[in-house]
Each structure stands twice: as C-alpha cells, then as structure tokens.
Amino acid sequence: MRLPLIALIVAAFGLSLGHGPSVAHAQDAAAQADTSVSMEIVVLHGTNDGTGIDPKIGKMPELAKPPFSSYNSYKLLDRSKQTSSKASPSTLKLPNDRVLKVSLKDVVQPSKKGEPKRYVISASIQKPGGSDFLPLLEVNAKAGETFFVAGQNHKGGVLVIGIKVNP
Prior knowledge:
- With 167 residues, the chain is mainly β.
- The protein has one domain (8-166).
- Helix content is 4%, strand content 49%.
- The protein is built from 1 helix and 9 strands, in the order E-H-E-E-E-E-E-E-E-E.
- The protein has a 5-stranded antiparallel β-sheet, with no helix packed on it.
- The chain is globular, with a radius of gyration of 16 Å.
- The relative contact order is 0.28.
C-alpha cells in the first residue's frame, strides 16, 4: 500500500488544526509579534526495500503506525535545526529539489492554568520554479510535538518530513 500523492498530515500526539488565540490573550499578540521558535526538521525516505529503520532516526514510534507503517524501511536524509519567526520564515531544500518553507504564525497562550503554550506553524512546499506542491498548511502544535508532511514520491518511495517545535 502506498501513501497517496497528495500530502498527508499526521499529528503525533493529538495535534489540532485551526485554533486561534482567545480574546483574553489578544493583548499578548502584539508582544509576541517578534517571537521566534526553534524547530527540528527531519527528512526521511520511506521505502519497502526491507532495510528497516535507520538507527540515526532515533525514537519515532509514529513510523510503526498507519499510514507510515505501509513502508518497512526509513532512511534519514537530513536533520536540521531551523529558527523561524513571523518576520523570517525558514527554508530547506528537499532532496527532490523542492523547497520547504516553515514559519511561526502565532503563539497561543493557554486558556487554562497548567496547559502548555501552542505554536501555530505554517508549512508549504514549492516545486522548482515557485509553483505550489503543498499549498500553505497551518498546524497548531505544542512544544515537543512532531507533525508530519508526507506523500512526495522520491526514488521508489516517499519523502516524509517531520517538524518538531522546540521553543
């Protein structure tokens, strides 16, 4: 079974989409305009060549669950630390010559005591020449959560991109 050509978005631990800041936190928005966030981006190549999961990937239990479990082998192609802000998105050239663009859109303060901040992250992938492969996607993630963008064919398999926010 192959992943569809369109991008799949899979959340690691109950990621939610599209939640904005509450009115009570509107004052914080101006103060956070210049906030930046550190992210770890991993680029994996999923295939069914029987070689297993590259030990350099480390712990990533999501690869053993659908839809990622439809591939029996994953190789680490790239691991990078990026810093992104509203004013300065980060970019990463992918192995298929497309460009991943990731930026911080907002920091959402918790509505209840004890809840963590959430980070609204936008991601897009552009083909060489600037046309969109994956139009703008926004994800609302907690620090330490990994979300995935997958579905691009690459050398007999698929590229899987994991993005983890590390503020």
